[in-house]
Amino acid sequence: MTYDIVIRGGTLVTATGRFSADLAIEGERIAAIVTPGTPLDAVRVIDATGKHVIPGAIDVHSHHREPGYTHKEDIVSATSACAAGGVTTSFAMPNVQPPPNTVERLDAIIDLYNAKALVDWNINAAGTVPEEIPGLASRGIAAFKVFMVVDTGRDYPHMPGIGVHDHGKLLEIFETIEPTGVPLMVHPHDQALMGHIEEGFWARGERDALAYAKAYSAHDGIIWDTAAALLLRLQKATGTPLHLLHTQTTGVIEQLRTAKAAGQHVTAELNPWAVFLGNDWRNIERLGSYALSYYVPEKNTEPLWAALADGTIDLISTDHAPHTREEKEPGWTDGWKAHTGTPSTQFYVPMFLDAAVTGRLTLERTVDLLATAPAKAFGLANKGKLEVGADADIAIVDLDAELEITDAIVLSKIGHTPYAGKRVRGVVDTTIVRGRPVYENGGVTGTPGWGRQARPSR
Ligand code: DOR
Ligand code: ZN
């Protein structure tokens, strides 16, 4: 038979090992993995000599901004950046307008993705309206998302309709989601404590980005730790699978260890900003709000890497959160006016490959964190692995080449990155989504509409 594509000469890396092999693709699936040099007919041969072949990254947490905030990003620009960054599946977050908290709204957004996405996708529906939860769950979503944050002093990124911090309402949401079997992602945040902390900063006249950074990390991350404690307790009470977002404190890491040891159904993620950006006060001083997502005090860095290595943190997702310069600039004088969040979808795979090259993590664990574990956590049975029969979602990467991250190469609509100037070892050469190259030779070759909903099998 003649295969559609054969990738020759590369080193395949999975969550459990690495080996030299040639990989054949037929249609949308991996059709054969064979000893290097085995004669195979192919329409197209990709030479991967000296390169590594890994499952494409699965990003379960990304802010694509469409509909409603397309001046920041849209489905085409976000998924183009995914293609260039080795990301073959990207889940969209619900802080768009109108938010997908009803079936009708979710269906309208699904139509947009069917027409526009270059890579595979899903949508994390807002689980804020209990009556809508069963209907939303029937639409092939892989997760619900609830923010515990409601912004003070601005109306984005945490606008009304997506945030719930009342404990009783949260319990009701956990109870309602449980029978659907769909995991619930929560952005942990203690609004009441934060209210008090903010008042203190403002009363002292501290309002700039540095004050904002300190407020969110006050008392060793108390707003994160108390919220996580509540969520883990609600998980225990209801049995609803919980996915904890934005892991960044040693306090949360310890709670995760205890909950997992007790057999609780919880997964946790780390976002790139927690170890490559917001964990260095010099970046906050240099970049102000452009470096915030959140300030993650330096003492958390080593425990976070250890938790990634030992499985306490299950997976890496981007929290890709593009905002324009106009939305970031006010932070120099008022950090509460600037929109919080940092972009990363195009560069996080290279940054974590660099962490593997420099020995922070093994290459296998890196692949696990980026692809295999997210697929497993969200029930994507055919994704996140290099196996015969699996979706041919693949990134071919060059670990000997260096990438210099610059604003000029940013595909995200905003055209800037807080990682500009950073040099990393690990360049994405080619990205393949279900058998079709969507990025190669330095350019995006995918087309809007190729991406398909990555439905979980439960
Ligand atoms: O930093 C953040 N940015 N945190 C969030 O919870 C939302 C996100 C965004 O949408 O920009
Ligand atoms: Zn987010």
Structure description:
- With 458 residues, this protein is of the alpha/beta class.
- The chain has helices at 75-84, 103-116, 133-137, 167-177, 191-203, 209-216, 218-238, 250-261, 273-276, 281-287, 301-310, 325-328, 348-357, 363-377; strands at residues 2-8, 11-13, 18-20, 22-26, 29-34, 41-47, 52-55, 57-62, 87-92, 120-123, 125-126, 144-147, 184-187, 242-244, 266-270, 315-316, 394-404, 423-433, 436-440, 443-444.
- It has 14 helices and 20 strands.
- The strands form four sheets. Strands 3-2-7-17-18-19-20 form a seven-stranded mixed β-sheet. A six-stranded parallel β-sheet has the order 11-12-13-14-15-16.
- Helix 5 (191-203) runs antiparallel to helix 6 and helix 7 (218-238) runs parallel beside helix 8 (250-261).
- The structure holds (4S)-2,6-dioxohexahydropyrimidine-4-carboxylic acid and zinc ion.
- (4S)-2,6-dioxohexahydropyrimidine-4-carboxylic acid (DOR) binds at residues 63, 95, 147, 157, 187, 293, 321, 340-341.
Mean pLDDT, as a whole number?
98
User: Radius of gyration in whole Å, from Cα?
Assistant: 21 Å
What ranges have pLDDT less than 50 throughout 5 or more consecutive residues? Answer: none
Provide a count of the helices. Answer: 14
Which fold does the CATH topology of the largest domain refer to?
TIM Barrel
The biggest beta sheet is recorded as: 7 strands, mixed
SS-derived structural category: alpha/beta
Strand order of the largest sheet: 3-2-7-17-18-19-20
- Beta content comes to 15-25%
- Cα shape: globular
CATH superfamily of the largest domain: Metal-dependent hydrolases
